Amino acid sequence: xxxxxxxxxxxxxxxxxxxxxxxxxxxxxxxxxxxxxxxxxxxxxxxxxxxxxxxxxxxxxxxxxxxxxxxxxxxxxxxxxxxxxxxxxxxxxxxxxxxxxxxxxxxxxxxxxxxxxxxxxxxxxxxxxxxxxxxxxxxxxxxxxxxxxxxxxxxxxxxxxxxxxxxxxxxxxxxxxxxxxxxxxxxxxxxxxxxxxxxxxxxxxxxxxxxxxxxxxxxxxxxxxxxxxxxxxxxxxxxxxxxxxxxxxxxxxxxxxxxxxxxxxxxxxxxxxxxxxxxxxxxxxxxxxxxxxxxxxxxxxxxxxxxxxxxxxxxxxxxxxxxxxxxxxxxxxxxxxxxxxxxxxxxxxxxxxxxxxxxxxxxxxxxxxxxxxxxxxxxxxxxxxxxxxxxxxxxxxxxxxxxxxxxxxxxxxxxxxxxxxxxxxxxxxxxxxxxxxxxxxxxxxxxxxxxxxxxxxxxxxxxxxxxxxxxxxxxxxxxxxxxxxxxxxxxxxxxxxxxxxxxxxxxxxxxxxxxxxxxxxxxxxxxxxxxxxxxxxxxxxxxxxxxxxxxxxxxxxxxxxxxxxxxxxxxxxxxxxxxxxxxxxxxxxxxxxxxxxxxxxxxxxxxxxxx
Length: 611
Ligand code: M6R
What we know:
Number of helices: 20
CATH topology of the largest domain: Glutamine Phosphoribosylpyrophosphate, subunit 1, domain 1
Bound molecules: 5-amino-5-deoxy-1-O-phosphono-D-mannitol
Shape: globular
Radius of gyration: 25 Å
Strand order of the largest sheet: 3-2-4-1-10-9-11-15
Distance between the termini: 11 Å
CATH architecture of the largest domain: 4-Layer Sandwich
Largest sheet: 8 strands, antiparallel
Number of domains: 3
């Protein structure tokens, strides 16, 4: 949550910072602010989006070749002007932007108040800049040293940038538990929460590590640990291209990302399979082959949509590799004293690679000796760095807050994990493996076909856009799809939606069904289609309205359903990759028709870096 940008160099800092904040707005959009250094330090901040900040600044001076900016997802303190970042020290000569949470801000604040500090916001962040100032005043040390000393006193997570009126040609940045990338240009440096604000200026980046501090001047960057040990930073080249983070003619990032899925699914398996030979290679998995083969169980930890991908994996891995799987909400797992042994493999799934609960679950599992396999989309993010091994999904940057292409890419990788394990353990025959991989290779083309239902889905969306509730039902591999469909609808259209295993409906949710209740049923071809047809009849008997996702050529479900959306035929285990597509489109169109901001739904942020 929260996006931070810093710049020091030869360009005007303001446009670089504003463009960067607009790119990072997916991380939070409760307020925005900038600090610019032009002899004196100028700060502008405003509740609302970056566009509100721009309106507020309109006509005011914005000169300066050093500065920083922040877009906020509120944790401590309401989303108003006074809580917007940057925050300043008591004497106003230091300012800070911060992504994360200072957990012990309460006692620190009390102590600082006793020492005469006056606070102007309700945030945890403001405490840190007062603390730095206090240390400097007490001890007379340099700003860098004061920052280091202050960071030893705080508990929590942070990615911070600090500007000082007294050191106008310097930015100080530090991170612990929140992401930070530094772009290395010629005579200029960029700092950001991810690479998107940087990519159009330089491809050379440094991913700052936890407990590192960067002292940044126009022509020099020094990285040290907070123990004051100088580091040799590793400069790596970004693979990201500018067009990947632009809308490319689509009205919204979410729609663009839905339509990118044929490509992103293909990219997820590119170079990893040769279907006709029954060949699969996931290097991270090969490295830990013996561990995986001998695992008595696999634990999966994730949140939100990534957790739904984990649930699909439970079916896949148990079906094909015959290893017991437990899928856990990372936020529950980390606090319930789970039984973890050295024999356990923990698969952590995360688009952003920064989700605080998933990271904490990994740390817990690691401390008990488990082997961690991370499946993430954002290259260089925290989860891949703390995992023993893993696989990137290669879906490309996902900017829409509602996850779409990341989910299908995760399911693709998890299908490869399941099949690779099955191959290693000999639990599927070569012939069957070739069949499954051949079908997996055909999935991108079939997603193209599924996307062709877009116009028909718009008609259905128009019919249901004013619904207050919706029920999503599925069984087997389609149960996680039902959960994911419901999550997509609720998060972007604010319609209350529940995903349920279809047969569980009669144990409670059936009471909700009447002629007002749209029931989306994923009723594709497969071993339990007859069972789900019975569930549809139960809904129809109570006047529920059925929207069915069926396999092309279906002749049974369409007789009962009020609305039918066809998807191409595929292997039952791969249906989630197709059935999810119409549900993404349905939620998108309903949200648009209700006038919702699909890319930045209220109260949400793309990467949840607080617990
Ligand atoms: O980055 P992660 O995959 O770890 O994020 C997990 C969830 O926060 C995320 O999937 C969230 O549920 C999305 N908004 C769903 O669309």
